[in-house]
Amino acid sequence: MRFHKTSKGLYQPDRDIVRPGVGNMLMVNPLTGFGGGGGAAAFSVTNSGDFETSSSQSLSITSPSGNVDKWTAAFWHKRESIGFSRMFGGSSAEDYFRYFSNDKAEFKVTGANYTLLTTATYTDTSAFHHWTVVYDSGNATAGDRMRIYFDGTEVTGFDTDTNPPQNTDSTINDGNTNYIGTHASGNQHFDGLIAEFYLINNQTLTPSSFIDGTPGNPIEFATGADDTHLQFKNSGSLGENSGGAGDWTNNNAVTQSASFPP
């Protein structure tokens, strides 16, 4: 592979390695390999799931009985309307990640006021953005038990910042029904596109496991037996899971979209 030095002193790959027409294919970085995530393989994303709030569309699964105290969710999304909107949730109606009525992001666990509510608002409907949501209730540092990252950067400004007591169980991975695009009460449905949805059991991960910048491009993460990775590639089975946790049920006909991040 050949590289050339630009007028600004930067090294870039020669044009003959660029491969147009392959969707959202990551190119080689001379310092880190493919992507920016320390040598992750080149990865093409071609689809997303289109969730319509007017049709109460969602995905659901009877989750594996995994680690309710340690998990990471990560996904790309593009909003089509603003206001109340739940992106995923556990078997309890009080376990969820959503946009609040004022478009602040809220991560809530167990319904006992363990909540992160951002100071920032998120109202963009023109582009894909990436969330990474981490729950680690066994962490000895109380402030690190609930963490969220937007477009690769950790959110640290909160109107409410109340982490749970150590080893407090969530209802994600609890062996009961978990949701994407709504929560256990079946309302406040997400309106927009979701792509590359991961739910990783028993690991606390950072955005660099899933994206190569801020937000950069998608990176494919290697999933395990109790994990979810939804790519929305199969139009006839949008809940098809390339992870090991089983396929998700498509409720009220979530459709496939040809739009994809970034």
What are the salient characteristics of this protein?
eight-stranded antiparallel beta sheet, 0% helix, mainly beta, disordered N terminus, Jelly Rolls, single chain, 262 residues, 20 strands
In whole angstroms, the N-to-C terminal distance is 26 Å
CATH class (first level) name:
Mainly Beta
Low-confidence stretches: 1-42
* Structural class estimated from helices and strands: mainly beta
Number of domains: 1
Radius of gyration over C-alpha positions, nearest whole angstrom: 18 Å
Strand content: 35-45%
Series of H and E elements: EEEEEEEEEEEEEEEEEEEE
**CATH architect. name:** Sandwich
Judging from the principal axes of the Cα atoms, what is the shape?
globular
**Number of helices in the DSSP assignment:** 0
> What is the number of E strands?
20
Query: What's the pLDDT, averaged over the residues?
Result: 85
Helix content: under 10%
Annotated CATH topology:
Jelly Rolls
The largest sheet is:
8 strands, antiparallel
Describe the structure.
It is a single chain. The protein has a single domain, classed as Jelly Rolls, CATH 2.60.120.200. The protein is 0% helix and 36% strand. It has strands at 3-5, 11-13, 28-29, 33-34, 48-51, 58-62, 70-79, 85-89, 96-99, 104-109, 114-121, 129-136, 146-150, 153-154, 158-162, 177-180, 192-201, 228-230, 249-251, 255-257. With 262 residues, the chain is mostly beta strands. The strands form four sheets. Strands 5, 7, 12, 13, 14, 17, 18 and 20 form an eight-stranded antiparallel sheet that branches. Strands 15-11-10-9-8-16-6-19 form an eight-stranded antiparallel sheet, with no helix packed on it. The chain has a two-stranded antiparallel sheet with strand order 1-2.
